[in-house]
Amino acid sequence: MKEIIFDIGGVLLNWNPDVFLKKYFAGNEVRLKKIVFLSDEWKMLDLGNANVNEVRALILKHHPNDIKAINYIFDHFEEEMLQPIDDTVKAIKALKKAGYKLYILSNIHQDLYSSLFLKVLFFRVKNIV
What we know:
With about 130 residues, the chain is mostly helical. Helix content is about 60%, strand content about 5%.
């Protein structure tokens, strides 16, 4: 076997809403996780049926008392949560050097896929498909 498939969230990039929410919204993190990351609207994003701005607008519409927190989450979750996992990046480099073909399979939404954070990851590991 000379091919390996990686997921993105939790494998190539950190993805831990609990840590992020607890850092900024201690005491409200469970409720805000349900409102944003476990919502039907977020599922639409994961499925590619809506973009980030549409999802944000829908969540804000349904939770007008949490506008400040929701906007903060949407404005900062990428930079706070989605950082390359250094051990995985090292492993990818070693696997590539050993001749493995590396692929990504993920439900990451298009807005995030196009973001600077993912571009930084690809720059660091180069030639991952």
